[in-house]
């Protein structure tokens, strides 16, 4: 299970970096980064073809990204250990009672507060 988690985390990182790069390369309404790499009418995909290609690849990477994120969330919640006091108390069936001290305070180990 630990190997699967490491593989999914690696794919998660690669997918997120690829998504950032592809989103920055897409043609915006104003000036864009795609024009820097020859995104004009003489590009490999044509003047309109690169937008469709990049958006489809971005949509595919976004689907993979969310799928991996949900898988990692499922793995981490399935192998969850109690981390807080409330988790530990609610997971244990036996709760010890707190011993009551007498109100006189004559035999108590704590020092008396002056009145």
Describe the protein's architecture and organization.
The chain is mainly alpha-helical and 115 residues long. The chain has one domain (2-82). It is 53% helix and 0% strand. It has helices spanning 2-25, 49-78, 85-91. It is elongated and about 80 Å long. The model has no long low-confidence stretch (mean pLDDT 74).
Structural class: mainly alpha
> Which overall shape is indicated by the principal axes computed on the Cα atoms?
elongated
Note poorly predicted spans: none
Largest sheet: none
What percent of residues adopt helix (DSSP H or I)?
40-55%
- Please, what is the average pLDDT? 74
Distance between the termini: 62 Å
Tell me briefly what this model is.
By secondary structure, the protein is mainly alpha-helical. The protein has helices at residues 2-25, 49-78, 85-91.
């Amino acid at each position: 299970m630990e190997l699967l988690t490491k593989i999914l985390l690696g794919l998660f990182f690669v997918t997120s970096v690829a998504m950032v790069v592809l989103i920055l390369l897409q043609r915006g309404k104003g000036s864009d980064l795609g024009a820097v790499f020859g995104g004009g009418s003489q590009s490999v995909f044509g003047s309109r073809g690169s937008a469709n290609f990049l958006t489809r690849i971005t949509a595919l990477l976004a689907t993979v990204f969310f799928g991996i994120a949900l898988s990692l969330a499922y793995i981490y919640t399935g192998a969850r250990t109690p981390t807080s006091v409330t988790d530990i108390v609610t997971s244990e069936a036996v709760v010890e009672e707190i011993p009551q001290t007498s109100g006189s305070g004559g035999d108590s180990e704590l020092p008396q507060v002056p009145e």
